[in-house]
Amino acid sequence: MPKKAKRIIVDTKLCKGCHICISVCPYGVLRKDDEVDNRGFFLPIVYDLEACKVCRLCEMECPDFAICVVE
Ligand code: SF4
Ligand code: SF4
User: Which protein residues are within 6 Å of ligand 1, measured from CB?
Assistant: First the structure.
């Protein structure tokens, strides 16, 4: 069975909106939010959860340990 993500959680306190997670995802799962948060950062949002293959590249490359994929 291919892996499927149940949820992708972005810690809105830890995330600094660097978008590394967006650029490393091979499947276009994440996108930049249209609006800034209360600190002025464009946080990543889950655009296509179904497309996630739980490769965990986003988790591994996030410098702030701010993203977590729940399988
Ligand atoms: S686990 Fe892989 S496929 Fe899923 S969002 Fe992260 S980088 Fe993309
Ligand atoms: S890589 Fe980490 S800190 Fe950067 S936008 Fe993604 S979740 Fe936020």
Answer: 5, 8, 24-25, 27, 29-30, 52-58, 69
